[in-house]
Hints:
The chain is α/β, with parallel strands linked by helices. The protein contains twelve helices and eleven strands. The protein has helices at 9-22, 37-49, 70-84, 101-120, 131-143, 148-151, 174-183, 200-216, 220-249, 261-266, 269-284, 290-301; strands at 29-33, 57-63, 88-92, 124-126, 157-160, 163-166, 250-253, 256-260, 309-311, 314-319, 322-327. Strand 5 and strand 6 form a beta hairpin. The longest helix is centred in the C-terminal third of the chain and has 30 residues, at 220-249. The N and C termini lie far apart (78 Å). Keywords: ATP-binding, Coiled coil, Cytoplasm, Ligase, Nucleotide-binding, tRNA processing.
Amino acid sequence: MDHRPSLDPAVAAIRRAVRAALATVEGPVLVGLSGGADSLALAAAVAFEAPKVGLPASAAVIDHALQPGSHRVAERAAEAAESLGLPARIIRVDVGTEGGPEAAARAARRVALLDAARDAGAEAVLLAHTLDDQAETVLIGLARGSGAASLGGMAPDRTEDGIRILRPLLDVRRAATRAACLAQGLPPWSDPHNLDRRFLRVRVRQDVLPVLEAELGPGVAEALARTADQLREDAEAFADMIDETIEDIVEHAEAGIAVSVPALAANPPALRHRIIRHVVASEFGESLSRAQTLEVARLATDWHGQGPIDLPGCRAHRAGARIVFAAR
């Protein structure tokens, strides 16, 4: 009798998740690889699954140059990818300062990965965010008072600048990626930034989630991830509703855009506020806070002659039966 060694459960779970994601892809894929356990486990699964469905796959290692020896870390990650059968390239990026170190690094990485995908002719970039990352994202959004769209967390599949961004591991716990690396003899890199308490996400990971698990019982991370799924569904539904109605209630105005006051006032607050934010974001590329959104909404629902409202990138004022958003 043929006794084959059983496949490690963590490896099997990650391969299943990757297999499901690859089933939605028709062209080449690119793995975003840092060398950490999450992305290394993802790369190993892609290297195993992609050839089975005839998909070319490669990896991109982003060197942020934020730590001493970062080039050696990038080289080891690229070597690991090559050993798995994934051609890899190292891309060094310049990280700015806007929005803080985490946001700046994320922005630089995003641009580099999208450029690398285009260079490789890839249809999709696969990222290794886990269920734990999703739970942390929701908690951070709650602490900041973010809206439902933000609390929806990271989408498993979205398109950005013509490239699909896939996150196959959003239902996989971080512990599983470490176990998968161990089972496959893959030595992951431990990023010291993951222990640096200057970063909010590290404090949420080390302090907040463990306390919630201890006080409320196990399953908090899974519950937060389910909440993200539900809120993302709601946000997508609202987005569809806005797309259906926006053309009927907006018109071009001098140096901007105008929205019908009666139509805006007739909508329920949740949709009214989303329309206002959508108009400003699409026309001027800016995001409004809730306080700013409410102030604009009062031009339609509580009009008593108030003057123009200064907003990021534009100014809103009421002109008859229209609210006009004009560039400042």
